[in-house]
Structure formats: structure tokens, C-alpha cells
Amino acid sequence: MSDIFEEVDESLRQDKIETIWKRYRLFVYGGAALLIGAVALNEFVLHPHFAEVRAERAKAFEQATTQLADGDYTDAEAGFRELVSEESSLSPLAANFLAQTLYEGSGDAAGATEVLATSGKADGTPFERAALLKAAYAKADTVSLAELETLLGDLKEEESGLGALARELIAAKAYAEGDPARARTAYNRLKFDAAAPQGVVRRAEIALAAIPIPEETAIETPAEAAAPTEPSETTEETGQ
Fold it and tell me: What is 2-213's CATH number, 2.30.30, 1.25.40, 3.10.450, 3.30.1600?
């Protein structure tokens, strides 16, 4: 599970870079220097209080991540919980780390899943979408395929690394529920999905090699369909 979460985080980093580039590239082309100057003026001159609050949150986040790395799970959990409760732009990222702290520190998978599910949004920030996907992985064994698709929402249609991971999870769940035809179709699409991370593509190839091809259903001709279904009676020959 931890390997999957690492792959989700890697896809998140790639997706976040792409999202930022798409959102701000026109400003970059039009005048990066002017934009940076305006942001600096707004942050440090017009609104010094907000800048100070953000700096304090960043410092608290850094401290919590250091505590997590050092194995100080109790203090790390307290720090991340406070950041999550503030409902700032840093909260979704803190929620991902809080779930990791709960899982690594005490093996609290249920608590970690609840944190991820609460903070996850299919149409939210990259960190919120990553949290939703991680929650879906954690719940995959205990929910139905329909419930899993509902949980993932529009994320499963997204043309991104996170979207590809969501589609892979659905393919695996379809096979687990006894629908190899749907699973093969989904894995075959992932194999040629330009947005899919290499790990997803490799696993799709492995799955396609392992999942048997369903037997084709025979198509009845009109004559076969009209034929009687009960066996005909045979006349026994009798000797004279």
C-alpha cells in the first residue's frame, strides 16, 4: 500500500506542475517580472499580517514534517491536526501527512482513511485529489465497484497521472468482482494511456498477461433459436 501511496504522490507532483503551468503560462509570457512584483507588494507591503500568518503555518508544517521523519509521531500528529483544522490552503497537504503519521505511527489505518476521505475532493486541488485517491485505495477491499466509482467521482475521468491511477483501481476492482472482460478492457486502455505513469503501464501489461481472455459467446442462428429445446422421441424398432 505504501508503494501505491508513493506513486500517487509522484503523480501528484507531476500533475501539480502541469496544473500550475497551464494556469499561469500566459502571465509568464506576458510579464513575469510584473507579476512577481505585484505578488511581492501584496504579500509583504499591503498585507503583512497575512504574510506573517502564512510564514507561521509554513514553519509549523516544516516542524511537523521533521518530527515525522524523526519518528516523533505524537508531536507530528498534533502539528498536522492543527494545520488541518485551520482550513487554509496548506490544510489538504497537511491532511496527507497526518494520514501518513497515523498509519506509520500507530497503524491506525481507519483513522488515516477517515482523514483522507474527509479532506479529499475529486474537483479540488491536486492535494485534495491525491487524498481522495488514497482513501479510495484504502477502502477498495470493503466497498463495491459501484461505491468505489461513486467515491472517485470525476477523478476517474481526468486525463492525468492521478486519473490513470483511479482507472487502474477500478480495473482491479472489476476483476476482483468477477468481471474479467471489463478489467481487460480497462487495462488495455491504460496500456496506451499517455497520462498513465510508467508503473501503471507496466502493471496493466502484467494484468493483461495474467487475466484469461473470456470465451466468446456463441451466437444462435434463427434456425437454432426456433428449434425445439426438448429432445425428440425416438421410435424403437421391434422384431417380428
Answer: 1.25.40
